[in-house]
Design goal:
The complex is a heterodimer of chains A (237) and B (86).
Chain A: H1 2-47, H2 61-87, H3 108-122, H4 125-149, H5 151-169, H6 175-194, H7 202-223
Helix pairs in contact in A: 1-4, 2-3, 3-4, 3-7, 4-5, 4-7, 5-6, 6-7
Chain B: H1 2-47, H2 55-85
The chains are: A mainly alpha (237), B mainly alpha (86).
Chain lengths: 237, 86
């Protein structure tokens, strides 16, 4: 009786030990993927800054048509893919780096794409360029800083970096415009990043909030007879 | 049943890793290439003609190059660690 009890206890201990080992190993593997997905997402953001190449495309009739059609087609393809993924036709796990909350709503890359499309088509490049730069660099920098330094400092760093992007793009503007645009744009970018909405991703907000604020300011000043826009930063080939 | 599920999960992980490794060169090379193009454009149209109109291309080129390089280093490091673990 005593012998059989010991055996059962040993078997139980052995099973428990094996299960713990397996769990630890599995978690380690999962963590490796998580860490990797984390940097994958960051690099995807910085990669998006390459879209600024759009402003180097030549100003010719056929090219101007392409400049409208191609981004629209790309975003439409993304919409179709996301629609199929949310419906369940495409396996969620085949999409690398997606977050859990993106299972039942469009993924952030679609929001990013839609915002870039709107900026390309509806906004002058003086407004669009710093907004795209904010989504490409400020967003991942805030994300990293938040992890190491806490929210407040991360947003302060994000504000300074966003202000730098607006200063850089508007450096040919009058000094008062430069200061106003940098402050307004950076505030918009940080609000867009900090304000978490259920159905709209921060990748969309970080681009659209400063863009709309600057558009309103530009149109407002234009109505008063003053054009604050500096010359374009990038020139078509 | 449990064993089958684990094998499936491991296969998905391998697939994800392959996908990422395939994507890595694109994510690294394209932005660096674009930034070098911006810098070349500034050199040809701006610097060699003595025009400051194209300084924007220089600024964006430098920003793209430095910004991407900084994140690429961490990304490549994470990939190397992951490869070792696998």
């Amino acid at each position: 009786m005593f012998f059989s009890e010991m055996t059962a206890r040993d078997a139980f201990k052995l099973t428990k030990k094996k299960m713990t080992e397996y769990q630890t190993e599995f978690l380690e593997r999962m963590n490796a993927i998580e860490v990797d997905a984390h940097w994958f997402r960051r690099v995807f953001h910085t990669f998006a800054a390459s879209f600024l190449f759009y402003y180097l495309l030549p100003d010719e009739e056929w090219m101007n048509l392409g400049k409208i059609l191609l981004p629209v087609i790309i975003v439409l393809c993304m919409v179709v893919v996301e629609y199929r993924r949310i419906r369940g036709d495409l396996d969620h796990q085949r999409f690398f780096g997606l977050r859990n909350y993106e299972k039942k709503r469009p993924a952030s890359y679609l929001y990013f794409g839609v915002a870039v499309l709107l900026l390309f088509l509806l906004f002058p490049q003086q407004i669009a360029i710093p907004c795209i730069l904010c989504a490409s660099f400020t967003d991942p920098i805030i994300g990293e800083s938040r992890y190491y330094l806490g929210k407040k400092r991360a947003y302060a760093i994000g504000f300074v970096i966003s202000a730098f992007f607006f200063l850089m793009t508007w450096y040919r503007a009058d000094w008062w415009v430069l200061i106003l645009v940098s402050l307004l744009g950076a505030t918009g970018a940080v609000i867009g990043e900090a304000k978490k909405l259920k159905f709209v991703d921060d990748d969309f907000m970080i681009q659209m909030v400063p863009a709309i604020l600057l558009l309103l300011m530009w149109q407002g000043l234009l109505a008063m007879g003053s054009n604050m826009l500096p010359p374009p930063l990038l020139h078509p080939l | 049943m449990g064993n089958k599920n684990d094998t499936r999960k491991e296969n998905i992980q391998k697939l994800l890793l392959r996908l990422e490794l395939w994507f890595a060169p694109v994510l690294i090379i394209v932005p660096i290439g674009v930034s070098l193009f911006f810098l070349w454009d500034w050199y040809v149209r701006g610097f060699s003609t003595g025009s400051s109109v194209y300084d924007g291309e220089l600024l964006i080129g430098l920003l793209l190059f430095i910004g991407n390089l900084m994140f690429d280093i961490f990304f490549l490091r994470s990939l190397r660690i992951l490869k070792k673990k696998q």
